[in-house]
Amino acid sequence: RKGGAFSLLWQGPSEPALPQATYCLSQAAIGSHDIFMVPVAEKKIGYQYEAIFTWSDEVNPYANGAQRNRS
After folding, report:
1. CA-to-CA distance for 26 and 69, rounded, in angstroms?
2. How far apart are CA 34 and CA 3, in angstroms?
3. How much is the pLDDT for 12?
4. Which of 13, 16, 28, 68 could form a disulfide with 46 if both were Cys (CB 3.0 to 4.6 A apart)?
5. What's the start-to-end Cα distance of the chain, in Å?
6. Beta-carbon count within 10 A of 65 CB
7. Do 22 and 36 meet the contact criterion of CB atoms below 8 Å apart?
8. Cβ pair 33, 45 in contact under 8 A
9. Percent of the chain residues topping a pLDDT of 90
10. Of the candidates 55, 47, 45, which has an alpha carbon nearest to the alpha carbon of residue 9?
């Protein structure tokens, strides 16, 4: 796909099992964001959930060769 994409996996407990839905995730450094999460696997320790993030070159700040700060 033109632009870019990545996915994140979360490991959750067996209960409660979360249905496919949009959830508000919060973290102190980046704030709150609505994330569409899908249960993708059931394991002995619980459920795994996945969210896929995509962007187009129009909103990708690195599309024109800008360098990422990896420090």
Report:
1. 24
2. 21
3. 95
4. 13
5. 28
6. 5
7. yes
8. no
9. 59
10. 47
